[in-house]
Write a structure and sequence with these properties.
The protein has about 450 residues and is an alpha/beta fold. A 7-stranded mixed sheet has the order 3-2-1-4-7-5-8, sandwiched between helices. Strand 2, helix 3 and strand 3 form a beta-alpha-beta unit. The longest helix has about 45 residues.
C-alpha cells in the first residue's frame, strides 16, 4: 500500500511540475498581451491613429455581398430580408451561394430574388457540401461575369454567413475605410442564445477578448490580422491579384480560408484595418451579431474546424513570416498555441485529480503527504495569480462590451470553454490526421438559428 502510494505521489508530482511550467508560460504570454492592451488604451490615439479617425461621410462604393449557404433553408430568407431592410441605402448586390443538391435553400433564396433585384441566386457547379472557400469562389466567378456583362465593377466584396445580423451603418464604415486599405474587419459580437448561458455565452467572452483587445494589440504591433469570415470587406483588386497567382481568390483546400486570407494580405503588402467605431457618440460599436452554437456538441464541431485549420493545418500551410518580424511571429505562435496548450490542459486536470486522490489516500492511511519543493509552491502560487488576473481581465472586457450581467458569467464560462476546447482538440487531431491521409475536405458546419426579433437581438452594449 505504501509503495503504491509512493508511486502515485511520484507520478502526480511529475504531472504537476510539467503542467505548472507550461501553464506559467502560457499565462505570461496572455499577461503580456493584456499589458499591451492597457498601454494601447492609454496611448491608442497616438499608436493607431487610423482607428480613431472619423469614419462618416465616405463616398459611395459598390459592394458585392457574398453569403455562402449550405443547408440554410431555415435561416437564409429571414436573414436576407433583415439585411435588405437595414441596408436601404447604398449600392450593393447580394450573391448567395447554394448547391444543386440543396433544393430547399435554393427555393428560399429564389423566392426572394424574384421580388428584389439586389439578391442574386448562384447555384454552384458541384454538389455540396464542399468547402466554404469553394462556395465563395463560385460567387466570385458569378460576380465577375456580371461585372463584365454590365460594364460596371464592384469596389469590394463583403463576407457574411447565413445567420448574421448586419449593422445598418456597416456599409458606410466599409466605404470610408476601404479606400486606403486592402481589407476592413469589423468586430463580431456574439449573441447569447436563450437557455444556453454557458455554452453559447462563452463565445461572448472569447470574442470580447479577441475582438475587444487582442486584435487591437496585433494591429498596434503591425502583425497580420486574421479575418473572421464575416463582417469584413476586401478590395476586389486585391482578390484579383491573388486569383492571378493561383487561379481563384479563395483557397478551396483550406478549412479556415478567412484566417489564411488575412495572413496572405499582409504578405502581399495590402493593409488590413480592424475598425472598432461607435454607431453614435458613446454608443455600441458597429459590429456583426449572430447566434453561436448552443450545445456542447455543436460548439465542439465548430471549434474543432477552427483548431484543425489554424493550429494544425495552418502551421503547415502558412508557415512563418520573415525572421525579423518578431511581432507577427509572436501572434502566429499564439494562434497555434492550442496544439500545445490542450495536451497541457489535459495533463493539468489529470494532475489535479491525482493530487486529490493522493491527499485523500494519505488522510485515510494516516501517512503524511510528501512536502513540495519551495520553488514549486512559488510556481503554483504564480499560476494562481495569473489565473486571477485572467479572470479579472476577461470580466472587465465582457462587462465593458456587454454589460455587467454578462460579465459576471465570465469566470464560470472559462471552465466551460476549457472543457469544450479539450473535446475539440481531440476531434481536430483526427480531422488533421484524416487530411494528412488524403481524406476529403468537407464543410463541417453546424445548424444555425436567426433571432425572431431583430430589436430584441441587439444588446444594449457591445
Amino acid at each position: 500500500m505504501l509503495m503504491t502510494l509512493s508511486i502515485v505521489d511520484a507520478i502526480t508530482g511529475e504531472l504537476i511540475l510539467f503542467a505548472a511550467v507550461f501553464i506559467a508560460l502560457g499565462g505570461v504570454d496572455d499577461f503580456l498581451v493584456d499589458l499591451l492592451f492597457v498601454y494601447y488604451c492609454c496611448a491608442g490615439h497616438r499608436l493607431s491613429p487610423k482607428c480613431s479617425e472619423n469614419w462618416g461621410g465616405g463616398a459611395a462604393s459598390r459592394f458585392a455581398i457574398f453569403v455562402p449557404a449550405w443547408d440554410e433553408s431555415s435561416v437564409i430568407r429571414p436573414m436576407l430580408r433583415a439585411m435588405l431592410a437595414r441596408w436601404t441605402d447604398g449600392s450593393y448586390r447580394i450573391y448567395v451561394g447554394t448547391y444543386p443538391n440543396d433544393p430547399a435553400t435554393i427555393a428560399a433564396v429564389a423566392s426572394l430574388a424574384l421580388d428584389d433585384a439586389r439578391v442574386r441566386l448562384v447555384v454552384g457547379p458541384r454538389p455540396g457540401p464542399t468547402t466554404k472557400a469553394d462556395c465563395l469562389n463560385a460567387l466570385w466567378a458569378a460576380m465577375e461575369r456580371d461585372a463584365a456583362a454590365e460594364g460596371e465593377g464592384f469596389a469590394a466584396i463583403v463576407l457574411h454567413d447565413a445567420e448574421d445580423i448586419v449593422h445598418p451603418q456597416e456599409l458606410s464604415v466599409y466605404a470610408r475605410w476601404i479606400k486606403t486599405h486592402g481589407a476592413v474587419q469589423l468586430p463580431v459580437a456574439p449573441l447569447c442564445q436563450p437557455g444556453s448561458r454557458l455554452v453559447s455565452g462563452h463565445y461572448v467572452d472569447e470574442f470580447a477578448q479577441s475582438h475587444g483587445a487582442t486584435l487591437l494589440v496585433r494591429q498596434m504591433l503591425g502583425a497580420s490580422l486574421p479575418l473572421a469570415g464575416v463582417g469584413c470587406a476586401i478590395r476586389c483588386e486585391v482578390l484579383r491579384r491573388i486569383a492571378d497567382a493561383r487561379g481563384v481568390p479563395f483557397d478551396a483546400n483550406s478549412l479556415t480560408e478567412d484566417y489564411e486570407l488575412g495572413l496572405s494580405l499582409r504578405a502581399m503588402g495590402a493593409r488590413t484595418a480592424f475598425v472598432r467605431v461607435p454607431e453614435a457618440p458613446g454608443g455600441a460599436a458597429v459590429a456583426v451579431r449572430a447566434y453561436f452554437p448552443a450545445t456542447v456538441q455543436a460548439a465542439v464541431r465548430q471549434k474543432a474546424r477552427w483548431m484543425a485549420g489554424i493550429a494544425l493545418a495552418g502551421w503547415d500551410r502558412t508557415g512563418w513570416s520573415r525572421f525579423w518580424d518578431l511581432g507577427d511571429h509572436w501572434m502566429r505562435m499564439r494562434d497555434r498555441r492550442a496544439a500545445l496548450s490542450m495536451p497541457v490542459l489535459a495533463i493539468a486536470y489529470v494532475a489535479l485529480l491525482g493530487w486529490s486522490l493522493s491527499l485523500l489516500s494519505h488522510w485515510m492511511t494516516g501517512v503524511p503527504s510528501p512536502a513540495q519543493d519551495a520553488w514549486l509552491q512559488a510556481l503554483l502560487a504564480f499560476n494562481l495569480l495569473l489565473l486571477v488576473w485572467r479572470w479579472a481581465m476577461r470580466t472587465v472586457l465582457v462587462t465593458r462590451l456587454h454589460g455587467w450581467r454578462e460579465g459576471r458569467w465570465a469566470g464560470p464560462r472559462m471552465v466551460v470553454a476549457n472543457y469544450i476546447a479539450l473535446l475539440a482538440a481531440r476531434r481536430a487531431l483526427w480531422t488533421y490526421v484524416g487530411l494528412l491521409a488524403g481524406g476529403p475536405l468537407r464543410w463541417d458546419k453546424t445548424a444555425h438559428q436567426f433571432p425572431g426579433s431583430l430589436f430584441d437581438a441587439t444588446p444594449a452594449a457591445a
